[in-house]
Amino acid sequence: MTIISQNSSNTSIAVVCFSNLRRQQTKDFCLRNGYPLINKKDKQYELLLLLHDDLIELYDSQLNTTISIDFLKGSLAHRHRFGGGRGQAIAKAVGLKSAITPTVLDTTAGLAGDAFVLATLGCPITLIERSPILFCLLENALERATLNETFQPITRQGFHIMQCDANDYIKEQRVKKQTAPDVIYIDPMYPDRKKSALVKKDMQILQRLHGKDDNTDELLDNALSFAKKRVVVKRPAYAGPLNDRKPDTSIKSKKTRYDIYTIEKML
Ligand SMILES: C[S@@+](CC[C@H](N)C(=O)[O-])C[C@H]1O[C@@H](n2cnc3c(N)ncnc32)[C@H](O)[C@@H]1O
Which end of the chain is more exposed for a tag (fewer CB within 10 A), N or C? Predict the structure, then answer.
């Protein structure tokens, strides 16, 4: 499995550790992934990974803002409580019905917003993220959430995170003849759009971190060769299908379209 050591864009990234508890972990992380470890916040770097005792966050110098992942409060928890349950477009797209709760492999975890929605609706889910920086945020969010009782049902039903390239993961699973997930979910970075002001801050930071995803075409092919029931690709409403590959059907919400490639009927 490939561990990516550099971000694919040319963004300058450094790491700052404010926690004695995390000192060794931080050194290991920097060594493994080739990021400089510096003593204090330095705005020369476009992105800074900040490690505190509890929280790990990503600071964007240009936007002067930080992002982190929190499964217990903030926008994710709000969507959990008020998001519309199984009636949401994403839930319909993965095939959730009252008697059907598919297993999902989210191959592009990012900040885990989509994965968390599916998990709160009952789907056992595995999240794959290739960026070491984002994986660090994910791991930290999970560390904090698992200490809380309200997260236990999600842990019990299955919420696993992995850092690797999803293409490698799928290929390996197929060679080892592992059980395939019912649904494979793909949410690539959105193609360029003219009105960049419309891109939310967290997605702007992700774009700075990654540049454009470069292998999601391959990912669609791999997903189609492995998923049991369907592959779902999230697209912006204005964009064509991934890889120009026509889906069997689509579910649309205001700004988003979920392209569905059916392999087998959901029963
Ligand atoms: C648009 S973001 C996903 C956002 C996510 N759905 C959410 O709700 O936060 C796409 C993410 O997929 C990751 N990614 C792209 N290709 C990947 C691959 N082949 N394997 C693993 N992760 C990948 C990128 O690093 C990026 O973080």
Answer: C
